[in-house]
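Backbone description:
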Amino acid sequence: MASAPPSRIRLCLWAWAVICLMLLGCRNAQAAPSEPRLVQSQQWLMDPGGQATLADIQVAQHWQPMPEWKSWGYGPETIWIRLDLRASETPSVMPWVVQVRPPYLDYVTLYDPAHGLEQRSGDALPPHPDELATINLTFQIPAASAPRSVYLKLRSISTRVMQVKVMPYAQAQQSNRQQEWFIGFIVVASAVFAIWAMAQWLYTRDRVIGAFAFKQSMAMIWGFLLLGFARVSVGPWFPEGWLSNIASTSFLWLIGTTLWFLTLLVSEYRPARMALRACYGLSIFLAVLPVLHWSGWPYLALSIGNICIPLAMALLTITLLSAWRHQVQKPIPVKYMLFYLCCYSLVNSTPPLMHLGWINADLIAVFGTLAHTVFDGIVMFFVMQVRARNMAKERQNIAMELHRSEQHALAEKRHREEQSQLFAMLAHEMKTPLATLRMWMDAGQLKPETMERAITDMNQVIERCVHTGQLADQGLAAVLQQVDLVTLTQQCIQSCRAPDRVDLLAPLGDSTMQTDAQMLSIVLGNLLDNACKYGASEERIRISLTLSEKQGLPGWLWQVDNRAGPVGLPDPARLFEKYYRSGQARRISGSGLGLFLVKGLLNLLQGTIQYETREDHVVFSVWIPIALAGR
């Protein structure tokens, strides 16, 4: 059974290593600030009832320090963030930009009490004309010459993971462009993998590739909604809040389709049936979970969805482990598949824990989720390529085996048909001489020559059957010896059933050559026997022997010429077929093997035979080279 080439497997494992390094690199790059520090400190405060006003928040006392990334999980509470800004070092007419990430936060309101500003943004709202043209949530505030505090109010049905930065306008523009190029590449790459998978499915109709195409399409849609492109491009066309709800629904469906795809992939390794059913059951549960979201329980639905991610990864790993004892090696060895699944589980289980607020948030909370859109697409591209190649080899092997089986069955069928024909022919041909003997015995006129003719006919039928079987089994080989062709031809004439009707025209000089005397005797004997049986009775039969060249090779040519008898002329196209006899010839005793045997023996002697008619005469021409090739 075909297995994945080790080089390709190693390539997939290296791809996963690159993914992890890229994520760590993104994290470290973000940790090293490259912009001036405009924020002196930042704190957060939770408003459980969501009724606090800006004035209430300004006098609040229980502020907590806020790290660069912070997650509050899911919930209806309002989160307030206070940013204590430094004074501008140089006078500037260009504003500062407050950048809020990730872009899928639903409602973010900025308050700048010192300048009387209040601005709203968020994934649930269409872009404001005063916002920067970017996928991030941004607010423009004046660059003041004195320190001040600005406030952000956050409400969101999605996970409340947040990072806030304040940058000069030019630097904000540069940062936004870089992020858009990077994230745009991710969305486009995801679309490319989805299109590739769909094309592969249309070509192969493989259900695993079809599931991957569907899963990757869902990842592309989810990434388009999650990363802010939908808000910028189609946000103004939707009522407030609809894009957020659609994005949350696509997230839940993405988890379900991913689990469904991986379950199909794992099912090829013959895991425990109960574990497999549990995986399918969980994927169905995730598919219907958006009903809870649209019924007014979005926080609960999304929390359950995130909890299901590590649960699904653990269940898949257990399911694959249950197949370890079978050691099914298609299309990828189970040990490599298990390693891949463990890496996949590690990368995709960490972000949900951050989204739920169970572990500290980090940049990986946002960019780690992009594994669904492109990183696992890259790895699965290689995995699917290896799988498709190995399955193609398996299909090719199966097709070849099927073809061999069909050929074997066809050969068996032909063999049975030939055996049936042989037995029918033997039964018929043995009855004729035996019936002749019985008739002469009953008449009391049985003569020795009659008995000898009948025995000769039966011997000829048996010998032809034996020689034909040896020819089919490739059990015959030419045994060369020095042969006088004129003498051998005369012996064949004397052995035929009407030697007194045969005239021989032969050269007077030397006519010896190296050949197989027995095979040549069988060839000439069959031709003379046919001429005697099927030719016109009492007409002369002429056989000539001459030297003749063919394609520059010297050889000997025999021509047997006789007038056609009452049975007429045979079909030239079928003359040398096994068991062929013309309709009129069937009235005369014969096996239908003579000319078939003649052609086969001449092939062994590297000779040829030709049939032609000259007016009402039948002529068979046999040519044999003097020197056999390869001897």
In short: The longest helix spans residues 375-443. Residues 352 and 540 are 104 Å apart (CA to CA). The two ends are 45 Å apart (CA to CA). Residues 37-175 form a domain with the Immunoglobulin-like fold (CATH 2.60.40.2380).
